[in-house]
Amino acid sequence: xxxxxxxxxxxxxxxxxxxxxxxxxxxxxxxxxxxxxxxxxxxxxxxxxxxxxxxxxxxxxxxxxxxxxxxxxxxxxxxxxxxxxxxxxxxxxxxxxxxxxxxxxxxxxxxxxxxxxxxxxxxxxxxxxxxxxxxxxxxxxxxxxxxxxxxxxxxxxxxxxxxxxxxxxxxxxxxxxxxxxxxxxxxxxxxxxxxxxxxxxxxxxxxxxxxxxxxxxxxxxxxxxxxxxxxxxxxxxxxxxxxxxxxxxxxxxxxxxxxxxxxxxxxxxxxxxxxxxxxxxxxxxxxxxxxxxxxxxxxxxxxxxxxxxxxxxxx
Length: 315
Ligand SMILES: [Zn+2]
Prior knowledge:
Its EC number is 2.5.1.60. There is one protein chain. The longest helix has 14 residues, at about 30-45. The protein has helices at about 5-20, 25, 30-45, 55-65, 80-95, 105-110, 130-140, 150-160, 180-190, 200-205, 230-240, 245-255, 275-285, 305-310. The termini are far apart. It is mainly α. The chain has a single domain (about 5-310), classed as Glycosyltransferase. Helices cover about 50% and strands about 0% of the residues.
């Protein structure tokens, strides 16, 4: 089976950052802030964040800040969105540079996205999704600004998206999906409202996501995919049911999705690698305490030492 190719994955992440002119980079351009967060968090979990030029990264992140709205864009010149804003704040947290933010402006941008029913829109265009509730709550918590929104209403909206199977959908009545469950459980966890989750019922739905090959899928009848190693596993950790799945088989599945020659991790064995699945594979292994990796916080999706620095650092 073999081990995690730490060095090759570090090289892979760095090479993607340098390949900005390629077709792939062009297609993914609007996602660059998210991609930077996935890549940099992976490097930190692999204990190699110093492989990038910190000042260069931070000045690029700040060049994506939209002064008028207070939100961050995916890349220079695009529109701000709550997801890019969370990624930007997470990147600054990784480097311990939250001090350069205008916290008041950033948190006001997010607070303005909250709707009357407690839900959140992703941007001024108004699409509503529990993913945006997570982005808003996680980001405001990192900034110590949760008091800028109505947390009780935000929690109530998420609870209104809970299904009979214990899972959560993107809006009320939406089908349960592992990615959405992570967002809802993560937001409830950060808001101190996990008592709204039916742990046994949800834990059962989540552990049924493990397929014969050891990997996890996102919904019944779907193939396993490495990214669910994060969405499903982090949710199981938060509700204290992670012992309900076979961790050894899952770790072997993730390791079998590595490109052992050029680095990177793919969604399933022998497919093309990308930064998204490399991050979720490494993050999943980190949740299972794979040797040599930093441990990751299941709710904030940041290394535990970074989260501790945010909440316990002396002023
Ligand atoms: Zn995937």
